[in-house]
Amino acid sequence: MFQILHGINVDWMRRRHIAFLFSGACVLISIVSLLVHGGPRYGVDFTGGSLVEILVTPAVHADAVRAAVDHAGYPGSEIQELSRPGQFLIRVESHAGRTSPAPAIQQAVVQQHPGSGVEVLRVESVGPRVGGELRGAAIKAIFFALGFILIYVGIRYDWRYSLGAVAALFHDVFITLGALSLMNKEITLTVVAALLTIAGYSINDTIVVFDRIRERSRTLRRETPANVMNIAINETLSRTIITSFTVFLTVLALYTLGGEVIHDFAFAMLVGVVFGTYSSVYVASGLALEVQLWLERAGQGQSQSRGKK
Amino acid sequence: MTRSDQWKFYLTVVFVLASVWTLWPTFQFYSLPAKERQVVLQARPSQATTEAERIQLEKYAKLREKAIKLGLDLQGGMYLLLEVDTSKLGPAEAKNAVDQAMQIIRNRVDQFGVAEPSIQRQGLTRILIQLPGLLDQERAKALIGQTALLEFKLVKTEEESKALYDRIDGYFARKLRGGAAPDSAAPDSVLHPFTSKLLASSHSEAVVLNENIPIVDAMVRQLKADSTFTSDAQLAWDSHDQDVSGRTARGLYVVGREALMKGSEVASAQMRLDLDATRPGAPGVSFNLTSRGGALFGDITGANVGRRLAIVLDGKIQSAPNIQEKIPRGQGSITGNFTEEEAQNLAIVLRSGALPAPVNVIEERTIGPSLGQDSIDKGIRSGAVGALLVVLFMVVYYRVSGVVAVVALILNILGLLACMAGFHSTLTLPGIAGIVLTIGMAVDTNVLIFERIREELRNKRTVLAAIETGYARAYRTIIDAHVTVLLSSFALMWFGTGPIRGFAITLSIGLIINLITAVGISKMIFDAWSVRRKLSSISI
Prior knowledge:
- The complex is a heterodimer of chains A (309) and B (540).
- In chain A, helix 6 (159-182) packs antiparallel against helix 7.
- Chain A contains 9 helices and 4 strands; from the N terminus they run ααβαββαβααααα.
- Chain A folds into 2 domains: 13-37 and 130-298, Multidrug efflux transporter AcrB transmembrane fold, CATH 1.20.1640.10; 49-126, Alpha-Beta Plaits, CATH 3.30.70.
- By secondary structure, chain A is α+β, with helices and mostly antiparallel strands.
- The mean pLDDT of chain A is 85.
- Chain A has a 4-stranded antiparallel β-sheet.
- Chain B is α+β, with helices and mostly antiparallel strands and 540 residues long.
- Chain B has 4 domains: 40-67, no CATH class; 77-147 and 361-367, 2-Layer Sandwich (Alpha-Beta Plaits); 151-354, Gyrase A, domain 2, CATH 3.30.1360.200; 368-533, Multidrug efflux transporter AcrB transmembrane fold.
- Chain B has helices spanning 3-30, 34-42, 51-66, 72-75, 91-112, 137-145, 158-176, 188-191, 213-225, 291-303, 340-352, 369-422, 429-458, 463-495, 498-533, and strands at residues 69-70, 77-84, 118-122, 126-132, 150-154, 205-209, 233-244, 247-256, 261-262, 266-272, 284-289, 309-313, 316-319, 331-334, 359-367, 426-427.
- In chain B, strands 3-4-2-15 form a 4-stranded antiparallel β-sheet. A 4-stranded antiparallel β-sheet of chain B has the order 9-5-12-13, with helices on one face. In chain B, strands 6-8-7 form a 3-stranded antiparallel β-sheet.
- In chain B, helix 5 (91-112) crosses helix 11, helix 12 (369-422) packs across helix 13 and helix 13 packs antiparallel against helix 14 (463-495).
- The longest helix of chain B is centred in the C-terminal third of the chain and has 54 residues, at 369-422.
- The radius of gyration of chain B is 35 Å and the shape is elongated.
- Strand 4 of chain A pairs antiparallel with strand 15 of chain B.
């Protein structure tokens, strides 16, 4: 048998406070980044506006494209040069006219660079009202997806676990949101799909650990809760690592080879998978343990005060 | 093999055969050379001229229908979300208007010649149009979005026009002075705030210089919006600019408010190049009227010989010829400064009829074909590399058992693609992401099982018992994991839009099939393998 991580015996729960500190720091960094950037950076899907991707041959400088876009009547647009020379992504604010800005931009570039060819690779034009609707639909989708998961975990497990699972879920999604903000990436419909997949994976990981904790707490009745959790985590650790590793491999392939359309999706997934693995070990179980210990203390306090009477 | 094993085995064979059978057209279609694939995409049996051709084209159409389609993000194309502006219609009319608009747009698109257009209603007032592989996006948008309301209106006489202008001047003069009548000694611009902006060539057809157009147009709109200003005449712009001694200008006509006849009476329309004798080769559109329209047109022209008849398209004057004599045959033409393409579009929209209400493009997504090709190449390459890495890892780490997992994985993807072909769904880029994540979950399922079996083996169980308890114990976890991810993808399917939904659908189908392949079929293989050989050890 070719094995990794067999028979390890780590006292995870004793070091849980270090993990809490680390998680707290990551969440704090995310909050700071989100505050500095004025909230998540929404893409045209949610704000309304247009995204135009063009390929200019022979390649021209980004400033030339900027001048042409200004000339076409869209000053203040954001221009991003992509990896291929001559390929630009132009982000135009929501504008009053209903037609897409692509033809005017194309014309302006050709006008300023006679003899160059301009191919419009992609146009995404979303009216402000549709943007609002898409935002509403995304929020609704997230809300119901999380709601369904919580109800299911609440039914299948103790509510103490449910609390840990929820915390781990928000932890992963929030830190991914923070990482996107740090990298100044946009929140688009596809990124929302990535965030929800992260939520799915996070809960999947957490459930595998919780299932084992529940099973072990039945067989190992004499052990302390912390020990039961350690044993469960250690026993499932090889599975956690292997699964995360294979998912990581596929997402890494998407990230490096998948092309720019899927790039942000894959980036969010990469961050999410790493934090999801870590959080199912530490955050979910750690918090469930804290809740359990707190309940025990509260219970003792109660019985003591009763005894005094 | 026990009886239930046999039963499982036959089910598996049926599953595989059915999947291959469903996917066969897809395989056939995508293994065609690119050129032939285009022929298949464009095939329309209704256009066949001979019986043999019809059979061939029908075969193509069937093949096209049965193959998995690629989304616009993968093959290039245009996605338009239109909103029908029903604000000026009653509730009953509004309901009809959207249906009508859909039918009319479908006719227009059909005549434009797009392979496999998709036109769907969305919500109450919206129409979603998807045009795959289209090149001339601006032309398509113009064609789809044009209201194409054709009206025939009489141009008012000089006296009628002058009366209207006087009233308009009076209206604005009073408005400028807060309701009081202006002093008769005031300058022209105060006395005649409207007509002072016009170059009067004649009253019924005034000319406005380019720099004055915004002001005049604002006044025209104001008059239209003011319900207290009533008249049986109205102002309408010429559709094209003209040249007035070197300066750009535009005509402004006074026409009747009511249309004498509408475009619904047009039976057919063609682009022609020989309509204008003074400008040979200039594109225009000739049309034939229905018999009812022909009779009406005869009456109209007969009663108004010597007057001008304006041909108004979407509120703009296309031309206003003099009625020389009664036109009994119900034929007419529209000339103007058209390009050939514009004339072609006009002919199409006249044939397919006017939209019952204006439509606005509220969402547009266009993927050029080269980016589409790029996306699909990269999507397939990254998917293949990702899958290969996982397969390699599984086989190295779990040996023979890893091979079993890989077989289950292949069956999973086969079944997933077959389902997509069977449901006629479309493969999009987010869909590919969904497939990649299905691979992740499928591998996780087997990892869970195998790690459990290894544990049982370490606890000194026999191979058979280890497999049994390994599967049984992992099964609960697997169900929990699948249910939670499925629940969240159902939420995405119901409340999400476009790309999110495509992602959720592939992921859901993949996960459901995974419960069959990664649990059921892999268990069957294990059973067959271990029972038959009475294994004392297992490669895991």
